[in-house]
Amino acid sequence: MSEITITDAETRRAQDQVLDVREDFEVAEGMIPGALHIPMGQLNTRLSEVDQARPVIVVCRSGNRSARVAEALNGAGYTADTMAGGMTAWQRAGLPTH
What we know:
- The protein is α/β, with parallel strands linked by helices.
- It has helices at residues 6-12, 24-27, 43-46, 64-75, 86-92, and strands spanning 3-4, 17-20, 36-37, 56-59, 80-83.
């Protein structure tokens, strides 16, 4: 697992999967367009929704939960990175949300 910058995530999101592991109330404040939303607590039961053949960029509010999830995904055979600074950094940089 590596930690990637918001700039790298913005570039990679066209071809890679973005997995948002925040809670519903956090996602209501804005999400990266095209991201798949699976709250961290539901990941075990919804893991089949994540395409194992494509790299995953895991996102949370600040980067703590996403680092844990990326590590677990890598352990399960996925290729996953965490986005440094999370959605806080993404929104501060003025990058697109919906």
